TrEMBL record:
Active site annotation, chain numbering: H208, C522
PROSITE patterns according to UniProt: PEP_ENZYMES_2, PEP_ENZYMES_PHOS_SITE
Origin species: Ramlibacter henchirensis
Protein family: Belongs to the PEP-utilizing enzyme family.
Keywords: Coiled coil, Cytoplasm, Kinase, Magnesium, Metal-binding, Phosphotransferase system, Pyruvate, Sugar transport, Transferase, Transport
A GO MF label: phosphoenolpyruvate-protein phosphotransferase activity
EC assignment: 2.7.3.9
Matches recorded under NCBIfam families: PTS_I_fam (TIGR01417)
Name recorded for this polypeptide: Phosphoenolpyruvate-protein phosphotransferase
């Protein structure tokens, strides 16, 4: 029966496909295999299972040798694990996902685990219900074994066009990811993945997870509360990323309606694509720079493709994620920054120094410690200054990459003059280190993010030290309004048009313009067409956003006349409820 679940829209568009439920295990590989590779993949799974069975037999043998000393519970536990491993239900189920859906073995195993876990949850008998934990441990052991053995199978990335959707059982049907929660690091794993859209139970519109989804340009809904409980594996679902709705088991009429919407969106994309090479100039002749926000050097071609005239925000922290404590060294970082610089073919690239902590943990270990690292904690530049060796490594790597093109350095989350001075002296130190080593590096402009209200209220200090400023509205809103950007329960209070937020944004733009210093907005406001006219009216001429948003914003710029917008923007600023003047 059709039903709808409401959440928060985070990335536009419509996705129609089958649900893939993701339990706790998002860190395993997810890719399709070729039909010819099915047997090899099943063998890999079987070998994984057999290796774990052997391991348990060995343990049992040790226990027998220990005699009475051996803990009785351990022996019973191993018996249960053996029984589960030998249970054909598990293997038959996993084989189904490999053979019929062409999932790689790890993905197939976690999918079957999810399926069985739900059955366990529904059991009346408490003893049986508790076997779920054993099952998870058994699956974990197989996964660990498989991780140590390289897959002979090459991934087959397959992102089926929505247009090609057929409602049959073909393996080519788009897949929609449904999960309780996904961290930005998890999302990164899906960046090259097979999913056509995603839904999570938790998360705010401007959480970093939502931001990565937007950068992937796939429809997404977050804060859908109990979606991961209500949707079943393989259910047909529609994600409406415009309205923030998930429709489960849609009727043919609803499917037809959304199919139509999808085609309309495709047509609109086609129309916008014609603007790619059109310079972004307002009706009254103001040139506007539309830059891209990227997460990885590999995003550079997408930015160019979208007509970006540079990168306004390279969130370098994504290079540091999913590395289990081993951070990239200077050479590895330098290579990555250089790839981004070369990838942009002579256009400027603004590299932001690492911004981790709060809702951007580096990996599971940091995620578990997240309560120690809230948004008000050791985040971004604070984290960097707390570990100068790590920070100097990054600074040297960026300086070296600057020898290959126009690079700007951007520092996140500054508030205090002492932090500014410390940062700049570390930058001098990094240059001196490179001089001593005789290593070449290039010149760079250095800028600061304005994302803490204290920074927006100390502009004179900031402008004394920096070449340019970039307004991080995502955090500026969070910190001005005391609203956790990742918490869906307060998402309705997260308001970019709150008069206090607008004052801070407006003052920053005005002060930079008055002093002839560069200023941009690189938070999500820059890519939201409902704010383009207002920001232009406030004097903003540089916007940085996800590549997928550039053409729509360009269209707004081409239709704008700043002579008219300036007076209107003043009215908006003076209003108690600016949203009303923007029709919101
Ligand atoms: C911001 O805060 O607006 C910003 C661009 O940085 P991030 O979203 O990475 O915190
Ligand atoms: Mg920020």
């Amino acid at each position: 029966m059709t039903f709808a679940i409401h959440g928060l829209p985070v990335a536009r568009g419509i996705a129609i496909g089958r649900a893939v439920l993701m339990g706790g295990r998002v860190d395993v590989a997810h890719y399709f295999i070729d039909p010819a590779q099915v047997d090899a993949e099943v063998t890999r799974l079987r070998e994984g299972r057999n290796a774990v069975i052997d391991e348990i037999h060995r343990l049992q043998h040790t226990i027998v040798q220990m005699g009475k000393e051996a803990p009785h519970e351990l022996s019973a536990l191993l018996d249960v694990h053996l029984m589960l491993l030998q249970d054909e239900d598990l293997i038959t189920g996993v084989k189904y996902w490999i053979r019929e859906r062409l999932y790689n073995a790890e993905w197939a195993l976690t999918t079957q685990l999810e399926q069985l876990s739900r059955q366990f949850d529904e059991m009346e008998d408490e003893y049986l219900r508790e076997r779920k934990a054993d099952l998870e441990q058994v699956a974990e052991r197989i996964l660990r074994y498989m991780k140590g053995v390289a897959s002979p199978v090459a991934p087959t990335p397959r992102r089926k066009s929505q247009q090609d959707l057929l409602l049959d059982d073909s393996v080519d049907v788009p897949l929609v990811l449904v999960a309780h929660d996904l961290s930005p690091a998890d999302m990164l794993q899906f960046k090259q993945s097979v999913f056509a859209g995603f839904v999570t139970d938790v998360g705010g519109r401007n959480s970093h997870t939502a931001i990565v989804a937007r950068s992937m340009d796939i429809p997404a809904v977050v804060g859908a509360r109990s979606a991961s409980q209500l949707v079943r594996q393989d259910d047909w679902v529609i994600i409406d990323g415009d309205d923030g709705v998930l429709i489960v088991d849609p009727s043919p009429i609803i499917l037809a309606e959304y199919g139509f919407k999808q085609r309309q969106a495709e047509l609109e994309r086609g129309r916008l694509a014609r603007l790619r090479h059109t310079p972004a100039v307002t009706i009254d002749g103001h040139k506007v720079e539309l830059l891209a926000n990227i997460e990885m050097p590999e995003d550079a071609p997408t930015a160019l493709e979208a007509g970006a005239v540079g990168v306004g925000l390279f969130r370098s922290e994504f290079l540091f994620m999913n590395r289990r404590g081993r951070l990239p060294d200077e050479d590895e970082q330098y290579e990555a920054y250089r790839r981004a610089v070369e990838g942009m073919q002579g256009l400027p690239v603004t590299i932001r120094t690492i911004d981790v902590g709060a809702d951007k943990p580096l990996d599971d270990v940091q995620r578990e410690e997240a309560h120690l690292n809230p948004a008000l904690g050791l985040r971004a530049i604070r984290w960097s200054l707390a570990d100068p060796a790590m920070f100097l490594t990054q600074l040297r790597a960026v300086l070296r990459a600057a020898a290959y093109g126009k690079v700007n350095l951007l520092i996140p989350m500054l508030a205090h003059a002492s932090e500014i001075r410390q940062t700049l002296s570390l930058l001098d130190f990094a240059r001196a280190e490179l001089d001593n080593r005789g290593v070449a590096y290039g010149p760079m402009q250095v800028g600061a993010m304005i994302e803490i209200p204290a920074a927006a209220l100390s502009l004179r200090t900031f402008l004394r030290y920096f070449d340019f400023l970039s307004i991080g509205t995502n955090d500026l809103i969070q910190y001005t309004l005391a609203i956790d950007r990742a918490d869906e329960s307060v998402a309705h209070l997260y308001d970019p048009l709150h008069p206090a937020v607008l004052q801070l944004v407006a003052q920053t733009i005005a002060e930079c313009n008055a002093q002839g210093k560069g200023v941009s907005v690189c938070g999500e406001m820059a890519g939201d067409i409902s704010f383009t006219r207002l920001l232009l009216g406030l004097g903003l001429r540089t916007f940085s956003m996800h590549p997928a948003q550039i053409l729509a914003v360009k269209q707004e710029v081409l239709r704008a006349d700043t002579r008219r917008l300036e007076g209107w923007a003043k009215e908006v600023l003076a209003s108690e409820e600016p949203g009303k003047l923007l029709g919101q």
